[in-house]
Design goal:
7 strands, Rossmann fold, alpha/beta, 266 residues, globular, single chain, disordered N terminus
Length: 266
């Protein structure tokens, strides 16, 4: 039985490494975040599906609940401080603790590729507001509760684009580089509370969400440059998320884990 079959097997298929932990996944209404939510649930976590699209969040909540998992949908705009505070408060009201935060929400699939000098200030600011300020605000919202229990796992989604300086979406690459800087700075500040803060840099990851940021020609070129010749899927990232969320990673913090099939080696 291969790993994918184990993943599809549902509750009980994993080692329950996150049993009774409470995990918030932002941007979990679709794509990578949806897969993360399901995998965390299959490892025993109670999962908060936090997304700006509440209808999508509810669909994921219902799907997980039908499989016997404990899931809770919350509408959140990560770029808004009050909204992220409410996300944390509602999670506490429901579960009484916050153990894991996966900062996954980001603007990406709707980006139109263009030279940096054609990016408007408004477009630049809108993207930074979600991709970078959103990580800051969501982390700021949950950290008091983690500090109170003197434990926690924060995992921020960066991007392998920061390792290669990919052209024509400088605002995205810059935002994801900022995530790494934020990760390292905060890890230094919260280590005394046994809270770890790490980042993951995925390669080009293909989901059900349409996107225009990679052409077919680029896709083939990227694939040929990988050590492992397969298109990356969210499932390829889920194991790293579970590991960094678990007790196995209790002594790992401030790190960037590159998960891209060997596309970049830095």
């Amino acid at each position: 039985m291969g790993p994918d079959k184990h993943f599809r097997a549902g509750k009980g298929a994993h080692n329950m490494r996150l049993k009774d932990r409470v995990a918030i996944v932002t941007g979990a209404g679709q794509g990578i975040g949806r897969v993360f939510a399901r995998r965390l649930a299959s490892e025993g976590a109670k999962v908060v599906i936090a997304d700006i699209n509440y209808d999508n969040a509810l669909k994921v909540e219902q799907s997980l609940q039908q499989e016997g998992f404990d899931a809770f949908a919350i509408k959140v705009d990560v770029s808004n401080e009050q909204s992220t505070k409410e996300m944390a408060e509602k999670t506490m009201e429901r579960y009484g603790r916050i153990d894991i935060l996966i900062n996954n929400a980001a603007i990406f699939s709707t980006i139109k590729m263009k030279p940096f000098y054609q990016i408007s200030v408004e477009e630049w600011d809108a993207l930074q507001a979600v991709n970078l300020r959103g990580v800051f605000l969501a982390t700021k919202a949950v950290i008091p509760y983690m500090m109170e229990t003197r434990s926690g796992r924060i995992i921020n989604m960066s991007s392998a684009t920061i390792l290669e300086g990919r052209p024509n979406y400088a605002h995205y690459v810059t935002s994801k580089a900022g995530v790494v800087g934020f990760t390292r700075a905060v890890a230094r500040e919260v280590g005394d509370y046994n809270i770890t803060v790490n980042a993951i840099s995925p390669g080009p990851t293909y989901t059900e969400v349409p996107r225009e940021t990679v052409t077919e020609e680029q896709k083939i070129k990227i694939l040929n440059n990988q050590c492992i010749k397969k298109l990356e899927s969210p499932e390829d990232l889920a194991g790293a998320v579970v590991f960094l969320s678990s007790d196995d990673a209790a002594f790992i913090t401030g790190q960037l884990l590159n998960v891209d099939g060997g596309l970049n080696m830095h």
